[in-house]
Amino acid sequence: MKLQTIFEDFQDFDEAIVLGSLHYMKNMERIWKGPVRKGSLSNLKSLALHTCPKMTTLFTIDMFRNLLNLEELIVADCPKIDSLASLKSSSSKSGPFLRILKKISLFELPELVSISSGLCIAPNLERMVIFYSPKLEKLSTMDVSSTKLKVIKREKEWWDALKWYESDLSTEHEDYLARIFILLRKDGDLMA
């Protein structure tokens, strides 16, 4: 049997289950399948996914609502992910979501075009590292809305070519983001 989903609509979900780091899950397509009940995954503090070549959906909006304690997210080498959030499962999009997320690291996601699909996320984000996500050509102010953001690491070429979805991005906010941008060195300086 090939693992495609971690959780599938559990009726008696044991909230003591803690995901830490998942590596080389070559057949996993999603973390959760089925309806997400209130409280599911609410104790999850950290999630790291490495080398999940078939994963297409990281979070649904219903999962976002439940990730109340997620502080760190690492996603690496998942070539089919085009956005961290899928909006397909719900018509209600109020936020912000991932309210206590402090660190997000995104590595080798060649199809990534959006971080949050326009949802307001991570108002307490402090550090963001992005490496080799060539299709992520635009950012939304919803992706970097935190006033606590201290560091954005990325390749210089990407930063220079970056466009913003919102035409109303204030000059002050753009200057602030430029000040916290740190050039990602080619010697493997990937940690936030």
From TrEMBL:
Keywords: Plant defense. The keyword Lipoprotein does not apply. Pfam families: LRR_RPS2. This is Disease resistance protein At4g27190-like leucine-rich repeats domain-containing protein. Residues 25-140 form the Disease resistance protein At4g27190-like leucine-rich repeats domain.
